User: Which sequence fits this backbone?
């Protein structure tokens, strides 16, 4: 990931917040701006155990940055998948993807700390690992200003908690968390490869995109995965040396979504 100065503390709004995201996704409609969604959430009382201020904060700090950027394309797609009863485990992985895209501190933590630990055969990941990652990020200038020790401690907890919510870690003790097996699902891989393609990227740029690293995949592994998916007729890929050429079956993301939700 890049070293832009855009690490924030927005994860404090709710970590993964999977059930809350699903509830807001059902409430949201295309064209609805965050303020109107927040008003609607308060009016309907979908978060009956939270205050109106908390409900508005969930929309502004959690839902909007992750799902309503770029005109709400992500929200429209996820809402469609939700309505088509897309497998819950696959929806969770797409929410994970959107969270990592919106919160660079989380995406970088997964790529730079979680996957190296996983690949090295480590059994656990600790809050100290998260704190060390943040200190390295501070030294690299990834924040607009240096965070206080209390902020570092809090955000370290948010990173661990977010990994737990999305199934990368399991709670086994207070100081450390067990590293769980985490691999991209086939339908999510199809979603992601087409999402990147319809961003206007070249075929090779799609294979090289950093989003794959959120799932622990390097370029050659992505190419192998796409070849396997090609056997199901969703696309056709040819590769040699540094050249990749893909024949795309679906002309729009909507066609792709319709195909991957067919039973």
Assistant:
């Amino acid at each position: 990931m890049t070293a832009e100065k855009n690490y924030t503390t927005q994860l404090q709004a709710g970590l993964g917040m999977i059930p809350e995201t699903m509830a807001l996704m059902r409430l949201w409609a295309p064209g609805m701006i965050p303020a109107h969604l927040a008003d609607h959430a308060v009016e309907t009382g979908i978060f009956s155990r939270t205050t109106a201020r908390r409900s508005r904060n969930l929309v502004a700090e959690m839902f909007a940055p992750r799902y309503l950027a770029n005109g709400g394309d992500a929200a429209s797609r996820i809402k469609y998948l939700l309505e088509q009863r897309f497998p819950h485990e696959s929806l969770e992985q797409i929410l994970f993807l959107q969270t990592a895209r919106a919160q660079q501190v989380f995406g970088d933590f997964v790529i730079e700390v979680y996957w190296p630990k996983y690949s090295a055969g480590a059994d656990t990941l600790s809050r100290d690992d998260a704190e060390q990652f943040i200190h390295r990020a501070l030294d690299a200038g990834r924040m607009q200003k240096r965070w206080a020790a209390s902020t570092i401690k809090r955000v370290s907890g948010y990173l661990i908690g977010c990994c737990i919510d999305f199934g990368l870690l399991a709670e086994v003790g207070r100081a450390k968390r067990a590293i769980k097996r985490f691999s991209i699902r086939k339908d999510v891989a199809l979603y992601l490869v087409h999402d990147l393609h319809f961003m206007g990227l070249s075929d090779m740029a799609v294979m090289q995109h950093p989003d794959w690293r959120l799932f622990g995949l390097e370029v050659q592994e992505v190419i192998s995965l796409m070849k396997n998916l090609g056997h199901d007729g969703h696309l056709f890929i040819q590769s040699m040396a540094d050249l990749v050429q893909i024949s795309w079956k679906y002309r729009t993301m909507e066609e792709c979504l319709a195909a991957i939700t067919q039973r």
